[in-house]
Design goal:
The protein has one helix at about 1-20, and strands at about 45-50, 55-60, 65-75, 85, 95-100, 110-115, 130, 135, 140-145, 150. By secondary structure, it is mainly beta. It has a domain at about 45-135: Immunoglobulin-like (Sandwich), CATH 2.60.40.10. The strands form three sheets. A four-stranded antiparallel beta sheet has the order 4-3-6-7, with no helix packed on it. The chain has a three-stranded antiparallel beta sheet with strand order 1-2-5, with no helix packed on it. Strands 8-9-10 form a three-stranded antiparallel beta sheet, with no helix packed on it.
């Protein structure tokens, strides 16, 4: 009999502890403190520029005030397969340009997505194609563009 009474008391204690934090003051139950689940607007006017020997992506910022940064994605060679894009930045890009450090001379497709302070991610920007300029030669480097040699100067 004593064992049954002790077991009942232990079960009741667990139930009481489980119910202790279930009041109406819980901020996750809705009301005015509901979480932001609206994604920000997409970045626009994404461009791929060749600067010196680098590929740099630039874009117009998302119009949302709570944007924390941007993620850059690459896919090669088909821009229509959204699930095949891979994020290339390690941490959020807080500017509206991104030098693609690991870009190659082969053309690749890029897209940018905005991320807000609640970790909501925008739809992808339109795709843009870009590549790092390819060079051959020694000190007088000559860029190769689309298989055509373009001299940088004439003697």
């Amino acid at each position: 009999m004593k064992l049954r009474h002790a077991l009942s008391a232990a079960v009741c204690g667990v139930v009481l502890v489980a119910l202790a934090g279930c009041g109406t003051d819980n901020p996750l139950t809705g009301g005015s403190s509901a979480l932001d689940s609206t994604p920000p607007s997409s970045p626009t006017n994404v461009l791929a520029e060749q600067r010196s020997s680098d590929l740099v992506l630039t874009w117009d910022a998302s119009s949302d005030a709570d944007v924390q940064g941007y993620d850059v994605y690459r896919y090669s060679p088909d821009p229509t397969r959204e699930n095949a894009y891979v994020k290339v930045n390690v941490s959020l890009v807080t500017d509206t340009e991104f030098p693609v450090a690991d870009a190659t001379a082969a053309l690749a497709w890029y897209r940018v997505k905005a991320v807000d302070t609640s970790a909501n991610v925008s739809a992808a920007s339109s795709a843009v194609q870009g590549a790092r300029p390819a060079y051959i030669g020694g000190t007088d480097e000559t860029p190769i563009e689309q298989g055509i040699l373009k001299p940088t100067h004439r003697p």
